[in-house]
Amino acid sequence: MLTTIQLERRLLQFSIFSSLMFAMMGIGLGLWMGSLVIVFDGAYSLISLALTLVSLVAAAYIRKPAVAARQDRVAMIEPAVIALKGAVITVMCCLSFSSAVLAIFNGGREVDAGLALLFGVVNVLGCLATMWVMATQGKKIQSGLVTAEINQWLMDTVISGAVMIGFILASLMRFTPWAEYAVYADPVMVVIASIYFVIVPLRMVSGAIRDLRNVSAGQSQTGELVNSEAK
């Protein structure tokens, strides 16, 4: 029977392994095909990997006996890590948006829609499987870090789904009078994904900042109470 600490650590390690696989596949295939949206998907997985490593380090730090005894410090670590995650993802969305807009003004990008569609299907199924494992096992523990990971995988799943749908539309466009506009499908998908998905990390940041303020306010009230009793 796994303890809560062991399960949290294993879920974070599982998330790291999955992020590494998707990052390698997405960035490698995206650069080879010249697809911005696939590189965007792979870059998101790579950033998720780095942020999960931060979560794993934070989880290990929180569980140290000397730190665990300081509940005020523990209460601030989780929201601080979540705020960092949200901020980094927000920056990534902004950079991806600017790159896609430049690609649109430069005439779009020609991409092998068939191979890209295959990548989209594999990616969606993989992300769904990872998110399902994280969500199912995460119910057994109360961990803000694991919940943040599940939110990341939800975003990754929807991004991959949008990529897959976009390439389906791009493939169909080639058989219509608008075939010449199919080259814009790749950067337009990145623009849409960047605008839509920046909302989630911004909510993560705002929620984490609110939690940090609540913890700080609680500590201030406790300090004032202690000082008044001492007087």
Automatic annotation (TrEMBL):
Name of the protein in its database record: Cation transporter
The Cation efflux protein transmembrane domain, residue ranges: 13-212
Species, as recorded: Photobacterium atrarenae
Gene3D superfamilies, sorted: Cation efflux protein transmembrane domain
Keyword entries, A-Z: Membrane, Transmembrane, Transmembrane helix
Membrane topology: Multi-pass membrane protein
A family per Pfam: Cation_efflux
TM region(s), chain numbering: 12-37, 43-62, 82-107, 113-133, 153-175, 181-202
Entry's localization field: Membrane
Domain of life per record: Bacteria
